[in-house]
Amino acid sequence: MEGDGRASGIRGRLGDLCYSSGLLHSLQRVRSWWQKDLRILAYHRIMPIPDPATYDFDLELISTSPERFREQMRLLKQRFQPVRLTDVAAALEAGDPLPPDAVAVTFDDGYDDNYRIAAPILTELGIPATFFVSTGHIDSGRPFSYDWLVHMLLRTGSPSLQLPELGIDMAMPADRQARRDLAGRILLEMKDLSALAQSALIQRLENDWRMPSDVTPDECRPMTWQQLREMRAAGLEVGSHGVHHRMLAKLPDDEMEREVRESKATLDRELGRMPGLMSYPVGGDRAFNDRVVRATRDAGFDLACCYICGTNPSPASNRFSLYRLPVERMMGLGWFATMLTLPSLMSYQTVSREPAVQSEDACTP
Question: What is the DSSP letter of 89?
Answer without folding.
Answer: H
